[in-house]
Each structure stands twice: as structure tokens, then as C-alpha cells.
Amino acid sequence: MASFSRKLGLLLVSALVLLLSVGGVLLAAYLIKLDGQIRQRFAGARWALPAQVYAAPQELYAGLGLSAAELAHELDRLGYRQDAELPAAGTYRLAGQRLEVQLRGFAFWDGAQAPQKLSISFTGNSLSSVRDGDSGQERDIVRLDPMLIGSIYPKQGEDRVLIKLSDLPALVPKGLVAVEDHDFYSHAGVSIKAILRASFANLRAGHVVQGGSTITQQLIKNFFLSSSQTWDRKINEALMAVLLESHYSKDEILEAYLNEVHLGQDGNRAVHGFGLGAQFYFNKPLSELRPHEVALLVGLVKGASYYNPRRNPQRALDRRNVVLGVFRDEGLLNEQEYRESLAMPLGVVGGRGGGVERYPAFVELVKRQLEQQYKDEDLTNEGLRIFTTLDPHAQEVLETHVLDVLPQLEKARRIKPGLLQASGVITSADRGEVLALVGGRDLRYPGFNRALDSRRSIGSLAKPFVYLTALQQPERYNLETVLPDEPIEVRQAGAALWAPRNYDKQLHGPQHLYMALAQSLNLPTVHLGLELGPAAVLKTMQSAGYSGDAKALPSIFLGAVDASPLEVAQMYGTLAAGGFQAPPSAIREVQTKEGQPLKRFPLQVRQTLPEGPIYLLTWALQKVMQLGTGRAAYSLLPADTVVAGKSGTTDDYRDSWFAGFGADRVTVIWVGRDDNQSTGLSGSAGALPIWARVMRDLHVRSIDPVPPAGVEEVLIEPASGLRADEHCGNAFSVPYLGDSAPQEWAPCTGQNPLSAPLKWLRDIFGN
Amino acid sequence: MSGTHQVYPTVPEPVIQPLPPPPPPATPRVLPAPSPVSGPRSAEDISGGAVSSLMKQARAYMGAKQPDRAAGVLERALRIEPRNYFVWSALGQAYLGQQNYAQAESMAAKSNALSHGNLYVSLENWKTIAAARQASGDKAGAQEAQATADAIQARLSAAAGG
């Protein structure tokens, strides 16, 4: 009996040992598998890093047209703050005509610019000198760090800006540890003490009020596991936390956590990590956050949605103050710092989208241009740094006036508020750089982008290309050529009879070519176009940059041509640049995430139209502004600013356009309705008020008055259209190509032998 | 048909602002034809301090056989002075250095268009154009450009000698 029971015991023990061994082997195998997963996840790139998109940096140099107040405004937008002590990078001091700034360092495409102190002086509205803030030595040119304007993240995806623990102010990691995992530096991944404490608190409350997870466990949970509260998940989390701690240092784990943690949501975009969190809530680098700002971010870790400072400011403030209390209790802040921090407001910037997602319409253009060169994954995963052409000042001006003028138009015309839409583009004429772009009234909503995707009939914006086609034939046409303003009927095979009329349904008698354009008369334009032929006119449009599929029919003379505002900007840009076409570009350079230059998008220009005829056309487009449909602009622009432009109105007032340029800025504005119904607004009534305000605020420079080779400026007597001299009262100068100017002298001149007696009389009695 | 040069009443269209009196027509400044040997000789003669400094940087990059970097710096200069023909001219040379011949020629042509007949910069531009055409296999075009460059050189030398 005894031997039986001993045998049984032996058997049981053997079975148990076997079971344990098998279990041990299985457990070991499982742990090895988990260990592999952890190592794999932590080796190499831990995150898909969205591309970061930057605006063009503001250049600072003597002679720049920028006032002290305007520079201070730019600095504010970059997240610099005024502080008389200039304690650190990202601060400035403004005193009258002098601004001192602690500039941030930045890795530009062509080299790094170190953080530095600058002293900048102004005279009136322009910058007079830039000096080194310490040595007082004059600096030729310095750049501000560029504004971060967006990122290219995958749909439904995570967005983050990577940070290094070594670059952070100590309060960030220490504060996080104090609040989230007090024993972080002493436990082995799991804290029995924290679990017991949490269990006790939860038991007392009757439900879960506290988590016992360490920072390591939270990181594991975010990296590998779902957020379900099951036992096997908890056990896995604990095992993996211990394994992670065995491979990686505390600092490595903390750095990963700071980059991983979810801190907010912006539509589809999830804001991850403290680096992006600082930009998203405070519009500045993490290294510049002050204690109350650090406390807000640390507080958000507990629940980014619940404590969302934009939606629930009071709740966020309470949480922040609790965190500040912990900072003080842990000795991270002294009593005075604590009091000062408590008194600070939340300090969160912006509304929806916050500081980063500023210009979705422009970033959309950037994305499209990048997609021609890069795969989607490269853009959303590799952390590329994209340097763009966006000029934040021009963008602000364009946005301001689109938003201001539309409600005024709606009110004046009794249009339902919100019904009008608008879009606009500003480019640099000679280089084709897109400086500003508005895709619709809802500026922060990345929806339908009218500046890129709305192809509408361009109406009279097409007319300059009819006239330019004519002016390329100096033996037949010049600016003084007289055109008939008479009814016309055009019959085309398979189409209804076309009988265009002037906008005012009136006839005005014969018109000089330039005046027909200035007044935007339809009938002289059609007469001229028919002499030239639609194919020739279409070719001129294509040479200027039109790439649509309009057919060569007479209706194109009056703008039966669909184009987007961006395409119109390209076409008018070619005019502004004297016939040199530059494709619209939004990107200058691309860097790797480490700051190494990867690719430059070089300037490209190509002469596609001759400069002489363009000079003549530009002269006529100046008359549009001085005498014609654009003249209301001069109620806003200084009278001595020479600009050229053209209004565009389509059938039934569906589209209101204005396109024009100064020396180096091309601006195109469209106003209309999304349902393509009439707005009752002509180009002069709808788009021009926005255009003129934009050009005024850009301080647009006058068009260069120097004629190119082969163009002769001749004084003309208006009544006869013949050469004039100083004796003719109302003569004015008209440019002619080659020797196409009239050779005959007008009767008023002293040159005409027939008028010698008149001259003699005039010499006696004066004019 | 003789022109009746009056300003017709404009198409009546309601505008937001009351119409201002039209400004006096701008009288274009008629400049004398540039004398063959006058005019600025180098970028420093027409550029501000910022652009001069960038031109210097660009020359250093060109000297270090880094034409791409030079082009980047020159584009920066153009954003400050978009019509500085010396900068466009240097950009043509930078493109030549990058073996982008079509753009080298375009930039030189742009510089010529802006230069108001300045012979010093035209000479450099025609040399660039000749080299770009030669390198891209357009022998006849290269010869033509070189002949233009030679003619400009001859005018400059004659003027200097006289």
C-alpha cells in the first residue's frame, strides 16, 4: 500500500515536473517571441514621420521695406515672445525704432544658422541696419527661422515632430515622471507599489480611478497592444515592460514615450509626442516652453480629449494647476515660480487646427507637386523637411481681404450671407513662385480648393491675349490702330449663330486698340480676333501658359476658356515677366529629417513670347487701370503706383475676376458661387476691391518704365493720331515696335511745314 | 479713319467704392539709349549690401565647383532684387556648371532682356549662350552666339582703347 502510494507520489511529482518543464519551455518560447517583437519595434525607425512643411523664411537686410511693428508681428507669428530681459532663444524686445531679438538656430538647406542675438534698427517703414547684438558688427543678411505651416501625414494618421531627450529643458522629463510614474527610475518596468496603491484606491472608490501602469507599460500599450482592459493583455504588458527594461536604458524609454504619447486630435490627424504638442498648442519649439506650458502638456497625458484646452479650457486649467502643484511638491518649481505659473493664462494659440495646420490650401499644392517626385510613403514616413515658397505676409494679406470684402459685397448686394465664394493666388512674376493661395472662404478647412481645382470661364481675362496676338504683327497693328465697334454675327458650321454684344449693349464708335482693351469692349475685340483667327489667339494663350483643352473658336476671344486661378496667374505672370514663362512652383528645397540637403527645385524660366509686344500690351493694361475697368483700384493704391490689370466678367455675372501685376507681384482674384449661378457682380465690382486692397498692402512696386530694345516711345497728338511735339497741348507718349510709329507730324507741331504760319502766330501769342 | 481719342463713358457697373478721379496718365520715362561703354560693370555697382554679399557667396560656391549651391544662393538674391541682371547672368553660369544647358541659355536671355543694353553683362551672357549651345550640340547656334560675344568684346575694346 505504502509502496503504491509512493509510486503514485513519484508519478505525480514526475508529471508535475514534466508539466512545469513543458510550461517553462513554452513560457520561455513565448518570452523569446515577445522579446523579438520588442527588439524589432525598437530597432531602426520607430515611427512613420510625416513630412514637415515650412514657409519661406523672412530675410532681414538693410533697405528691406519692413517696419519695426511688422517685424514684431512676424516674430509673434513665429511664436517668439516679448521679454525685456531677452533670456533665451525665441524672445525679443521692441523699443521704438529698434528691435532686439534672440534668434533661434535653424538648419537651412544651404547650411545651419546658429542661434544669435541681433539688434535691428528701422527708419520709418524700412529696416535700416542689422547688427550682431553683442559685437555691434553690421550683418549683410540674416534669416528668421521659417514658419512651420503643415505636415503631410497619412489619412487617419499620426503626426509628430521628433524630439531628443538631450535637447529638452529638464522640467519636461522630470515633470512627466513626477506626475505619471514617480518610481520610474527605480522599478524594473512594473511597479508592485503602484499596482497596490491603484488597487486600493480603486477598491475604495468602487470603480477604476487610478491606473497602476508605469511609463514603460504605457509605452508598451501604445506600441503593441489595444487599450482593452483584459487580464491577458495586462499580463502581456507587464512581461513586455520587464523585457523592454532589460534591453533599453531608462532615458531611451522615456524619450520614446515623450515622442509616442497622444496629446490631441485635429480632425483625422492625431497629434503625437511632446514635440508636435508644443507646436500644436503653443506654436513654438518644446525647448522654449515655460513651466505653466509644460504643465499643460504633462496634464494632457492623462486624457487629451477630456482635458482638451481648446474645447474644455476650465477643465484643462484645473488639471494644469494640479500638475503645477506636483511640480512644486517635487521641488521642480520653487514657491515663487509656482505662484507665477498659477497666475498665467492657458496661453494656447489658434482655434481649430492650432498652430501647425495653418494653410491647408497651399499645403495641398505642395503635396501635389511633391507627388510628382516622391512616393506617398516617402512623404508620410520619412520625416522630410519641405521648404516652400509661401510668404506668410502675402498669405495674411490675401486671407484678410477675402474674408473682409465678401461680407461687404453680400451686404451691399443683398446676397445671402455666406453664399459668395472666392479664391486667389499671388505669385512672384519673374520666378513663378506661389507666394500665397486661398482656396475658399473657410481658410482652415482642407476642402474644395478653388484656386487649384475650380476651372471657370475666364471671360474678359482672355482679351489681352487677342490684343497681344495683334501687337506681334507691328506691320498691321499698333496701340493706336482704330478698331470698329460695330455689330457682328458669326456663323459656324453646326453651331448657333453667334452675335456678341458689348456689356452695356451699346455701340461706342471706332476705338483705338488700347482703349478698346481698357474699356473691355467686346465688339472691337471680336472684330480684331476674327482678323487674326482663333488658332493664332489660342496659340498666344498657350505660349503664356494655358494648358486646357479649349477649341480654337471665335468665342475664346471673349473668354470661353476655362482655367483655374493658378493657371490664370501663370498666364499673367508670363506677361508680367516680359514673355518669360515660369511654371508655378511651391517648393524650393527638400531636406532629410537629419537636415541633409536632398533635392532642390530650381528656378525654371523659358522665353515663350517676345518682349516688345508684351511691353506694348502692358502699356495698354496700365490704361485699364488708369482709364478703364480697373480704375477704381486707384481709390486704394497710391496714384503714382504703376500697375497693369484686367477685369473679367462672364455671362450673367457668374464669375467675377481680376488679374494684374506690378513689378514683381501677380495677383489673381476670383469671386463667384459654387453652384455657378449669377452673383450680379462684374469683375470690377467683385474681384477688383479684393485685388486692389491686396496690392496696396503688399506695397506693390511700380512696373519698370524702361522700354526694351526695339521699342520706341513717341509723342502722339490724340485727335489725329500723328506725331506730336512740345507745342501740342494734350500729347502723350505711346510705345511703338520697330519703325511702326507714324512718321507724319500732327498739325499742332512746329514740324509740319503746312502749319508754319500757325507756329508763327503761336510764337507771338503763346499757346 | 482718324482716331477720336476721347474717353468714352465706361460700362456702368456698380462698384463698392465711389469712383476716384482717374490719375493723370503716367508719362513713361524715355531713357536715352545707353552709351556703349557706360553702365555698371559688376553686380556690386547696382546691388544692395544683401545681394552683394550673396553674390560673393555664390562666386565662392562656383569656385568650389558647387554650382547647385551657387544657384540656390543666387535664387535667394533674386527674391530680394528680382530684376538684377547680374544675378540672372550669374544664375545662367551656375546652370551651365550643372550642365543644364536649356536653362543656362534661358537665364542668360532673361538677363539680356533686363539689362537695358548693358554691354558688360551682355558679353557674359552671350558667352554663356555660346557655351550652352556648343555643349548641347548646336554648333551653328554656338557660332552665332560667339560672333555676337566677339562683336560686343570688340566694341568694349575699341571704347576702352579710345
Outline the structure in words:
- Chain B: TPR repeats lie at residues 51-84.
- Chain B: It comes from Solimonas aquatica.
- Chain B: Keywords: TPR repeat.
- Chain B: Residues 11-37 have a biased composition (Pro residues).
- Chain B: It holds the Pfam family TPR_19.
- Chain A: Residues 60-144 form the Bifunctional transglycosylase second domain.
- The complex is a heterodimer of chains A (767) and B (162).
- By secondary structure, chain A is of the alpha+beta class.
- Chain A folds into 4 domains: 62-140, Penicillin-binding protein 1b domain (Penicillin-binding protein 1b fold, 2-Layer Sandwich); 152-343, Biosynthetic peptidoglycan transglycosylase-like (Penicillin binding protein transpeptidase fold), CATH 1.10.3810.10; 413-587 and 596-695, Beta-lactamase (3-Layer(aba) Sandwich); 711-765, no CATH class.
- In chain A, 38% of the residues lie in helices and 17% in strands.
- Chain A has a 5-stranded mixed β-sheet with strand order 11-1-15-23-24. Chain A has a 5-stranded mixed β-sheet with strand order 3-4-5-8-9, covered by helices on one side.
- In chain A, helix 5 (215-224) packs across helix 7 and helix 16 (463-471) crosses helix 18.
- Chain A is elongated.
- The N and C termini of chain A lie far apart (150 Å).
- Mean pLDDT of chain A is 90; it is low at 352-356.
- With 162 residues, chain B is mostly helical.
- Chain B has a single domain, classed as Tetratricopeptide repeat domain (Serine Threonine Protein Phosphatase 5, Tetratricopeptide repeat, Alpha Horseshoe), CATH 1.25.40.
- Helices cover 62% and strands 0% of the residues of chain B.
- Chain B has helices spanning 43-46, 49-63, 67-80, 85-97, 101-114, 119-135, 139-161.
- Residues 1-36 of chain B have low confidence and may be disordered.
- Classes of the chains: A alpha+beta (767), B mainly alpha (162).
- Chains A and B meet through helix 14, strand 20, strand 25, helix 21 and helix 22 of A and helix 2, helix 3 and helix 5 of B.
